[in-house]
Amino acid sequence: MPAPLLDIRKLSILRDRTTLLSSIDWRVERGEHWAILGPNGCGKTSLLKALTGYLTPSSGEIELLGEHYGQSDWRDLRLQVGLVTSALQASVPPDEPALETVISGKYAQLDLWMKITPADHRAGMRLLRFTGAGKLATRLWGQLSQGERQRILIARALMAKPKLLILDEPCSGLDPVAREQFLHFIDALARQPKAPTLVLVTHHVEEITPAFTHALLLKAGRVAASGARRTTLTSKNLSTIFGTPVLLGHRDHRLHLRLPAREHGASFTS
Ligand SMILES: Nc1ncnc2c1ncn2[C@@H]1O[C@H](COP(=O)(O)OP(=O)(O)OP(=O)(O)O)[C@@H](O)[C@H]1O
């Protein structure tokens, strides 16, 4: 049996007497796509930092692509993990054309300084077209819209042919139409036969499209629920993580969340 893509066991992280993560167990098999959901401060970013080697565990084990944290060079392993996060946006030079930003992903560098080979040019253009940004090749980073930037960053991440692609709140800052278009793209990407395993970090159940097969729900640094989407994404579990009763609905293969009627409280009178 092949090793799981990711196997995290009893991971705890403490900093300055604060528990960021407590006894996290999370196993991702190849071919699965996961959503990580939880309220502000529940530990989502800390978990991502731990698995990309930017936050050292206090205890527990992380196994990524069959390699154990602490025993392998995590800088090499990190190259197999694509990370699309808004934190990256500030690091891209504003005068860099989109095609160069994409190609820089192959070399894990920001601000591409080397000569572009014809093969890299072809691969970069193919990915730009694939992400629906083919016409943006010469557009400068500083001129791109938020939605366009997200597509460029995904193309950039795919340039390194990652086994795991992490999308950290990729819809923040997108208008409703751009968000829907972007979610369609992500759903289609996940269904590609050679797609990397996707991990989507979000606060919003609406963004968990049907291609996401599994979910990890975090609350206060702990796993509140984890597993197949049907059994994990439930009103009960979501009420637990958000600390208030919520109702999960399904419409047209999409999820939505609402508060029970009596929770709305305020009413208007004229
Ligand atoms: N280096 C640190 N030292 C102390 N506390 C930290 C440190 N890093 C994060 N924290 C705390 O750990 C908790 C989890 O933070 P984290 O950024 O992982 O949450 P998150 O789920 O990503 O939140 P959000 O949804 O708001 O982005 C927060 O309360 C945060 O203040």
UniProtKB/TrEMBL annotation:
<feature type="domain" description="ABC transporter">
    <location>
        <begin position="3"/>
        <end position="245"/>
    </location>
</feature>
<keyword id="KW-0067">ATP-binding</keyword>
<keyword id="KW-0547">Nucleotide-binding</keyword>
<keyword id="KW-0813">Transport</keyword>
<dbReference type="InterPro" id="IPR050153">
    <property type="entry name" value="Metal_Ion_Import_ABC"/>
</dbReference>
<dbReference type="GO" id="GO:0016887">
    <property type="term" value="F:ATP hydrolysis activity"/>
</dbReference>
<dbReference type="InterPro" id="IPR017871">
    <property type="entry name" value="ABC_transporter-like_CS"/>
</dbReference>
<dbReference type="InterPro" id="IPR003593">
    <property type="entry name" value="AAA+_ATPase"/>
</dbReference>
<protein>
    <submittedName>
        <fullName>ABC transporter ATP-binding protein</fullName>
    </submittedName>
</protein>
<dbReference type="InterPro" id="IPR027417">
    <property type="entry name" value="P-loop_NTPase"/>
</dbReference>
<dbReference type="Pfam" id="PF00005">
    <property type="entry name" value="ABC_tran"/>
</dbReference>
<dbReference type="GO" id="GO:0005524">
    <property type="term" value="F:ATP binding"/>
</dbReference>
<dbReference type="InterPro" id="IPR003439">
    <property type="entry name" value="ABC_transporter-like_ATP-bd"/>
</dbReference>
<comment type="similarity">
    <text>Belongs to the ABC transporter superfamily.</text>
</comment>
